[in-house]
Design goal:
heterodimer, A: alpha+beta, Sufe protein. Chain: A, 16% strand, B: alpha/beta, Aspartate Aminotransferase, domain 1, 7-stranded mixed beta sheet, 4-stranded antiparallel beta sheet, 12 helices
Chain lengths: 173, 388
């Protein structure tokens, strides 16, 4: 597969991977076509100073991805792009931003960049929902689309998702 | 790029054996004649062509050397079998039976024939990919014109009992074809003993050049050509004869036949060593294919929680070449048809990789593979939500 140096670099040394303890929210998405699964954990803090004082921002972010090189590199890039941004700013990140940071993806792999954006948005959605904050309309729309895809993936991998959830509960993360 | 390439993808293709290159060399320049030419330059090529045909026929256990024709690839041979038999035997019937784990060239040819009005039936396979002979017997009827079953599957390496299938087809009066692209030169084949009517062999899977293959066609089998023209290869495959390629192919066959016993024994030892190591040292590893009835050089594992392409690329980064059939690696993002056919969990079809050994594989390379493989799996599992 012809990947850019940038993609291979992220694949070799991904940023912010692994499980996060006590995340404030998790975004879990899956691609029904290829079967890739991406989980994104976020910790949210409040800006202490500056003009964004008091706004929610992404204090920490981590990913776990079951997928190809493009999926892993996209996950790595989305964590780099989102870290330190306010939620409002993070919601402006697009698939094009991810592609630009990766210096492109092979045409058949472009969907992986969208998956990473979906994972981020889903994490933010879950955070806003859990904290009873206002959810922007397009985020709501995005969520109902990704939810449908996630359910299909869950069905496909049900045995594994169940197994994973057991471990998840046991570990109390 | 890694300095050294540790090649574990001999099932995809093999390097040409230096002895083969040496044998081919004169036929590019000094002995360039067209075997169809009447003059002495052409006759010289005709003589060598006949010699090569004889080598192939003997290696296959064919009664007559003229039962072997040369083609450009296993894909061409298999296309010729399916389409050629279908067209020549329309009066007898329109049903063809294949297995669901055939190579794409058989599978797609069958699909195309279906569009032309032929009926394609699939013989059942078990979880190892072995054809259910009773089911096959039930599916053969008076309209069946051909049974085509791959000898050893290219992904999972499972070897079929050709003799049983051959005997059944002979008893029922149905032509039996087998694609032996992966198996010939590695396991014993005898078309006579196994009651095979048509058989495909490829040169580049056995240290010969690319662009040449053969098809064994038992005397009396009714088949139509798909390439029409100058009437070469007994009017079954028109095209100027690729003499240099055929000389190389025949030399590769000679070497394989001579060294098969020793080479296979060595390869089986390596294969079993790797399989046992992985089973013992890597958690969540599933061997795909039959534990015993498999190609000496084939290893296929699914590693829970890891997608095949990322494992392939992680190994590639460290100089190791293997193969995967995961959806992410396919042009259409579809999971492997073979792995789905043997009933593998969809999650594990995503995680399958193939390691295939060959003539040049040595202990040092294997030790490097077995050092890097667990490390790579550990690294990718750290990133995966599904394996802790």
């Amino acid at each position: 597969m012809e990947y850019s140096e940038k993609v291979l670099g992220h694949f070799k040394r991904p940023s912010n991977y692994g499980r996060m303890k006590n995340p404030d929210a998790v975004g879990k998405v899956g691609n029904i076509v290829c079967g890739d699964v991406m989980w994104l954990y976020i910790k949210v803090g409040k800006s202490a100073s500056g003009r964004k004082k008091g706004e929610d921002f992404i204090k920490d972010i981590k990913f776990e991805t079951f997928g190809c090189v493009a999926a892993i590199a996209s996950s790595s890039v989305i964590t780099d792009l989102a870290k330190g941004k306010t939620l409002r700013e993070a919601l402006k990140i697009s698939k094009e931003d991810v592609l630009k940071s990766l210096k492109g993806l092979p045409p058949i792999k472009v969907h992986c960049s969208l998956l990473s954006v979906d994972a981020l948005f889903d994490a933010i959605y879950n955070y806003l929902k859990a904290n009873k904050k206002l959810i922007p309309q397009n985020l709501e729309k995005n969520h109902s689309r990704t939810q449908k895809e996630k359910d299909l993936i869950k069905e496909k991998y049900k045995k594994w998702v169940k197994l994973e959830e057991t471990i998840y509960k046991k570990g109390k993360i | 790029m890694p300095k050294k390439n540790y090649y574990f993808d001999y099932a995809a293709t093999t390097p040409i054996d230096p002895r083969v290159i040496k044998a081919m060399f004169p036929y590019f320049s000094d002995k360039f004649g067209n075997p169809s030419s009447i003059h002495s330059v052409g006759t010289e090529s005709l003589v060598v062509l006949k010699k090569c045909r004889k080598i192939l026929a003997e290696a296959l256990g064919a009664a007559d050397e003229n039962e072997v024709i040369f083609t450009s690839s296993a894909t061409e041979s298999n296309n010729l079998v399916l389409k050629g038999i279908a067209l020549a035997n329309k009066k007898k019937g329109n049903e063809i039976i294949i297995s669901p784990i055939e190579h794409a060239c058989v599978f797609k040819s069958a699909e195309w024939l279906e569009g032309q009005g032929f009926k394609i039936k699939f013989a059942k396979v078990d979880k190892y990919g072995l054809v259910d002979i009773e089911d096959l017997e039930q599916k053969i009827n008076s309209k069946t014109i051909l049974v085509s079953i791959i000898h050893a599957n290219n992904e999972i390496g499972t070897i079929q009992d050709l003799e049983k299938i051959g005997k059944l087809c002979r008893k029922k009066g149905v032509y039996f074809h087998t694609d032996a692209a992966q198996s010939f030169g590695k396991v014993a084949i005898d078309v006579n003993k196994m009651k095979i009517d048509l058989l495909t062999v490829s040169s580049h899977k056995m240290y010969g050049p690319k662009g040449v293959a053969c098809l064994y066609i038992k005397k009396g089998v009714k088949i139509e050509p798909i390439l029409h023209g100058g009437g070469q290869e007994f009017d079954l495959r028109s095209s100027t004869i690729n003499v240099a390629g055929i000389v190389g192919f025949a030399k590769a066959v000679e070497i394989c036949v001579k060294e098969m016993k020793k080479e296979s024994a060595k390869t089986i030892k390596f294969r079993n060593y790797i399989i046992n190591f992985v089973k013992k040292n890597i958690k969540g590893a599933h061997l795909n294919g039959h534990p015993q009835k498999r190609l000496p050089n084939n290893i296929n594992f699914s590693f829970e929680g890891i997608e095949g392409e990322s494992l392939l690329m992680e190994l590639d980064r460290r100089g190791i070449a293997i193969s995967t059939s995961s959806a992410c690696s396919s042009a259409k993002l579809e999971p492997s048809r073979i792995l789905l056919a043997i009933g593998l969990d969809p999650f594990l079809t995503q995680s399958a990789i193939r390691i295939s050994l060959g003539r040049m594989t040595n202990k040092k390379e294997i030790n490097y593979l077995l050092k890097v493989l667990p490390e790579s799996i550990r690294k990718l599992r750290k990133m995966s939500p599904f394996f802790k």
